[in-house]
Amino acid sequence: MGVVFNREPEEAKDNEMKKVLVISFSDLHHDARVSRQIDFIKDQYSVTAVCYQGKIDSGYEIVPIQKTNFTLTHKIFSSLFLLTHLFEKAYSLLYQITPIIEKLKGSKFDLIIANDVESLPLAFSLKGTAKIIFDAHEYAPRHFEDRLMWRIFFQSFNIYLCKKYIPLIDGMTTVGKGLANEYHKIFGALPEIITNATWYKKISRTINGSNKIKMIHHGGSTPSRKLELMIEMMKHLDERFTLDFMLIVPQLASSKTSGYIDYLKNLAEGDSRIRFLPPLKSEELVAYLNQYDIGVFLLPPINFNYANTLPNKLFDFIQARLAIAIGPTPEMAEIVNEYDIGVVSQDFTPDKLAEKLKTITPDLLRKFKSNTQRAAEELSAEKNKEQLNQLIKKLFK
Questions:
Q1: What is the pLDDT of residue 269?
Q2: Residues 213-378, CATH architecture
């Protein structure tokens, strides 16, 4: 599959328009952060995106990454290279960036935005005279520190990439204060915080006329997120409450991760209040979520990133004008409490969050949903767009 050209002809003729390359090992149909990142800049710059899949006719060029078919030999050698700290060889096997470099041979960019640490080697391979911004969606050295196999094979690899490339970047962004502070503490970086806030939606809060309280959780389906806790939570709630899941299996998921959604469905079997819905594209989410009453997220802090998460879904819930029910994750709790838009559980156990949900009366639910209007106005992507473009202008100067 070759390069797909989607940029409008008049933009291509603009010799003054600087060229920006955005790299992300993800599918942009479901990667809301990177899709917004491109939307922030595509009107000011000529944008090319390197990704697994992109949005056709969206005003930028797409260079598709071919997914690697990992044979047994491939897995053995990449594992050996990781264990023996031959990280450059491991990277070349895991990501196979040579075809991308060949496709972009002769292309010159003014700026490269590398999303997540695995994009940095490719970004520097294509650098030329370009400035490089590193957007860290997670704290890479402790990404899945709760998993023994990840610590054995990938923790040192991610630390190596951070140590090698962070001192060489021209700018850095990340999603929240906890991650920014850790990158500064360990690597001396000074990331700007650009949250996962979605675009402002002019939408009315929905008042559910029935006595049901409709709840929803959407996002990635990975075992480490312990989504079964929200199924367990339903056992502590009465028949008024329903819960829908809208889950996405991550790219390059292991067989265990791919089968996790079936495990959840088996757990929920027999409870008609729990449903599993097909995932939507990120741009379709907010309008669909608006029909619900409460957005739910119970995420135990089993690793550093989960303890410091400030995810897309929180901002999706806010723009959809939903009340919010969460565990006491600090940066999420700070927003929920500041704007008075929901409940924060005492701890991360299902019964404690259920206790909080039981306190929500119809009047309190209306109050929470009404308060989301101010939060939606103040916590929107429009401010992040201005911030990223200011950072880019500063680098070009």
A1: 95
A2: 3-Layer(aba) Sandwich (3.40)
